[in-house]
Design brief:
297 residues; alpha+beta; Aminopeptidase; 2 domains; 7-stranded mixed beta sheet; 14 strands; 32% strand; Acyl_CoA_acyltransferase
Length: 297
């Protein structure tokens, strides 16, 4: 066999459960900061979750001679809104072996092919941004505000607790909010409930570390909620050794003490941009406790 012969064009198809070992092997090579055990855990988490029918369960792959040579995860979620269900998709972990890199765009295009889906990529690598531009993705978030939330004053009377300690009897949480908090607790996120008057507000954070521990906001109902209750939340998290909050935004946040970091853009494709403060069921939520080094407490 001539080793210098042109490579056979890879087949692009959906990832099936039987492919996950090969996908984990590939991603361990492509993202060596995380070992194979991490990627096996990521694959298992995808295998265990429900997903909306009619969409890929795991994502797409390139296959050559029975071997996985490229892959991308597509995390589809059905999000109930007031009068309809919205389908969102967080793309993640796109990698193609060097010999097949020229076929990588075909893989990315397949992953973003569905109409009436809101696609978003919250952690794009610098090398993927030209591809995102070509596929019609646009930035919707410039960066995040790193807030010393515990220094913020308390605005109004409220009580906060971990979702695991929340008494669901007579709960003011909607069934959708309760399910979201439970799901993200299972993913290793910090799920909190803030009771204020006759309301129960859900908050989800992912604990991360970059020189110092901080909590990245994954979900709140609306950005004004995190601003109003930042002091209460910040002091609650400070007891866990987390002094800072990272909040997605497009500029400094009035009323919070901290620094805007204009270096973490997020991209989307679809009829509307995702709301700031809503990374629920994204790759950060699903995989964050694996790749951040903090597992569920």
């Amino acid at each position: 066999m001539n080793d210098n012969a042109p490579l056979t064009r890879a087949i692009c198809r959906e990832i099936e459960e039987a492919d996950l070992d090969g996908v984990a092997d590939l991603l361990a090579k492509g993202f060596p900061s995380y070992d194979r055990a991490v990627w096996k855990g990521v694959c298992q988490r995808l295998a265990d979750r429900p997903w909306p029918g009619g969409f890929p369960r795991f994502g797409w792959m390139l296959e050559s001679k029975g071997r996985v040579v490229g892959s991308i995860f597509t995390i589809f979620t059905a999000v109930p809104l007031e009068r309809r269900v919205e389908i969102r998709c967080s793309t993640s972990s796109w990698f193609v072996e060097a010999k097949f890199r020229g076929q990588g765009f075909r893989l990315a295009r397949q992953a973003a092919k569905f109409n009436d889906v809101i696609y978003f990529n919250p952690t794009p690598g610098a090398g993927t941004r030209p591809v995102l531009d070509h596929l019609g993705f646009a930035p919707y978030c410039r960066g995040h505000f790193l807030a010393v939330a515990a220094a913020s004053p308390t605005r109004g009377s409220a009580h906060i607790c971990d979702y695991a300690d929340y008494n669901s009897k007579g709960s003011r949480l909607s069934p959708a909010d309760a399910a979201l908090l439970a799901d993200h607790s299972n993913y290793g996120c910090i799920s909190l409930v803030c009771e204020a008057g006759d309301m129960a507000l859900p908050f989800v954070f992912l604990r991360r570390r970059q020189y110092v521990s901080y909590a990245q906001l994954i979900y709140c109902r609306q950005p004004s909620d995190i601003i109003k209750y930042a002091g209460l939340i910040g002091r609650h998290l400070l007891k866990r050794g987390i002094p800072l909050l990272a909040i997605d935004c497009n500029g400094p946040i009035k009323g919070l003490i901290g620094h805007f970091m204009d270096n973490k853009p997020k991209f989307f494709k679809g009829q509307r941009a995702p709301r700031l403060g809503d990374l629920a069921y994204s790759e950060l939520a699903f995989f964050g406790d694996y790749v951040s080094g903090f597992r569920a407490e």
